[in-house]
Amino acid sequence: MSKQHVIVGSVLCMIASVSWGAMFPVAHRAFEHIHPFYFSVIRYTAVSVILAALLWWKEGASAFRFEGRFRSLLLYGTMAFTVYNLLVFYGQQMMGEPGTIAASISEALMPMISILLLWVTSKSKPSGRIMLSVCIALIGAILVITKGESSFVAGFGEHVIPLALIFIGVVGWVFYSIGGSKFQDWSALRYSTLTCMLGTLVSFVISAAGSAAGAIPVPRVQDMNAAKYEMLFMIFLPGLVALLGWNAGLKMISAVNGILFINLVPMTTFV
Question: What does each C-alpha distance from 265 to 3, 14, 115, 138, 176 come to in angstroms?
């Protein structure tokens, strides 16, 4: 890992994390008009189209081949673009105004979750330095957001179910981030594109099934128009730019190091 890779990878992960920190307040406003499920489907359908065009231009039609990795791509895509996006945003909507901060703070759990997952899956115990860094980052992020007031966190006890959904979603994103290490021979653009397309397809099927059952309202044209600016922001910055930057950054500095930058998410949301 060269010094240049460390710097560039760190900057990319930082940009992605700050972008995601800004998305929660924006999403909160959009949910006044569009259900979180369709919000995610529409958002990542647009991102998938843009990514597909970029991949075709940069690497050609052969880059869309799964090369025997369809199941892995489907799994990781579902973890990120279905489990994470649908559950985190749905949990945020269920909580109302407090959900914006709650969903954001939950991101600070990612470094700890990633270390535990790697510990279990690879049987590799993390070093004391890494564990200390993760604990300090987590505590620091929580103190900044809560201003040291325990009552802020205590209020979340009223929202067990949405918080559980958010937590499951966060685990899904960690799973996706770690999964990228198995595609080191692929470009970040290719991994991002194929997982995004597959995960968004799964989200669409779930959303459509929910609408058929009468549980999820289909957004109307006026709903889409009312949230158009929020949608444009979510598509290009926390969607396209953050996704590519995140996967490219993790390839350079590893998932364990890159996920530490996630602690910038709640801080950005708070600001």
Answer: 25, 9, 18, 11, 18
